[in-house]
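User: If you would, consider this record:
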Amino acid sequence: MSRNDLATDYYDLGNAYAGIGKDAKALEYYGKAISLNPGLASANYNLARIYLKQGKAADALTILRGLLAKDPSNSKMLDTEGYCLYVLDRKTEALAIFRRALGIDPGSATILNNLAVVEHSVEDFAAAYGHVLQAYHIVPDNTDILLRVAEYARDANASVPAIRYFEDYVQKKPDDIAALTSLGDLYTQERYFDRALSAYTLVLSKGPNAEVLFKKASIELTAADDPEHGLKDLESALKAGFQDPKAVAHLLAAEDLQSKSEVLLLFQKYPPKPATPEPAPK
């Protein structure tokens, strides 16, 4: 058997171990493959992927740049290089690499999604929303990307499409408390108060949640004109330890606040706990 054939066998064994999550053994066999055939690009690439998974992004980047020196138009390797740079907090470089990869493979949902993640991290919310939406159109059954579309639409102040995408998402993932809460918040923002109350009630049906109780009470005590339930939910939220001075001030300043005297009595009955002091530096 030739050295190259043996290298290929070791590479295949590395893939088998990687496929069952045995990264240490995968690294061993990728290393053996590379020692026999240093030019085996697939083994080097998979080695870089495991290094990245292990938090060794700088080592992975070194391997990838060696590979890309020989294959500069490989969009898959460029995408992984971009992700390494993002992990290393070199975001400007990561953006440039992802855009280069996208120019080579404009139909890649993976590249579009990764580019959107970096754009969002640098607060270019409109661009992030546009790119992740393109990714979703390519892979419409991917619920992780659907959630990202909803979140990025919200952050880009595209509230109406954000509501639609959150609604689609919670139809598929009805136990996602964070998504249901975000949907309720968007309903509130757009003054769909009945829908907001329904969303918050669904969240509360899945377990106690002081923050959501307060949000529900705030609607009941104002727009919904339901002070009986509002006072009950407010007391439950305060009993559960809800503390958010900004939210409390916003509620007390509402012109349509019902039963304001009873509300004030509840805040007196359950005063905010003093903040825990930061430990003194040693």
